[in-house]
């Protein structure tokens, strides 16, 4: 079974790719769909960082 942090990384890559597509489609970062996708990516990054911090404390 894949570790949760690996799954989050895969989701982050997909979300980043989608964000790149949307910025090209809407010519920048100001469209609501681009902002929404950016927020999704931010949430995934936060989840990943939290998992890594928790893991590092446990390994500590």
Automatic annotation (TrEMBL):
Q: Which GO terms describe its molecular function?
A: protein dimerization activity
- GO BP annotations listed: regulation of sporulation
Q: Name one Pfam family in it.
A: SpoOE-like
Q: Please give the InterPro entries that the UniProt record associates with this protein.
A: HLH_DNA-bd_sf, Spo0E-like, Spo0E-like_sf
The source's superkingdom equals Bacteria
The protein in question is named: Aspartyl-phosphate phosphatase Spo0E family protein
Question: What organism does the record attribute this protein to?
Answer: Paenibacillus amylolyticus
**The organism's lineage?**
Bacteria, Bacillati, Bacillota, Bacilli, Bacillales
């Amino acid at each position: 079974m894949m570790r949760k942090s690996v799954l989050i990384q895969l989701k982050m890559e997909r979300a980043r790719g989608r964000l790149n597509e949307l910025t090209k489609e809407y010519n920048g970062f100001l469209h609501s769909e681009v902002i929404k996708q950016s927020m999704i990516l931010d949430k995934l990054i936060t989840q990943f960082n939290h998992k890594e911090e928790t893991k590092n404390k446990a390994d500590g």
